[in-house]
Amino acid sequence: MNSIEQSNIAAFVLRIGLGVMYLAHSIVLKLLTYGLAGTAEFFVSVGLPVWLAYGTFAAEAIGGILLILGIQSRWVALALMPALLGAIIWVHAGNGWVFTSANGGWEYPAFLLLTSFVQVLLGDGAFALSRSTSLPRLWAATP
Length: 143
Description:
By secondary structure, the protein is mainly alpha-helical. It has five helices and no strands.
């Protein structure tokens, strides 16, 4: 297997893992564990608008499905990153590193943010239903 094939398989494995994690975080945690009303109540308790709870739930659920299917994975991962950054800064930063801390530390959202960024860089990988377009170059080629 050459390095291009390995990279495509790696991007595929990452894409599936991220998709499953986003789905679990939305469906299992926000919907089945806390309920959407409970999730909305938590968002309000930390000073966020109620509509953001429902938007976050929908973005994570839809984004997870799109990642698993391999539909514009690069752009989906990029679109989900601001919510993770917001969760780290707004909710979890003051709770310590470990996610099992009271109100959850920032290790889990930070890891999802990092792996989402890697997905943005790698693109769809193997077995994708559609191919993401390339991101604009943010740096100049060096000689």
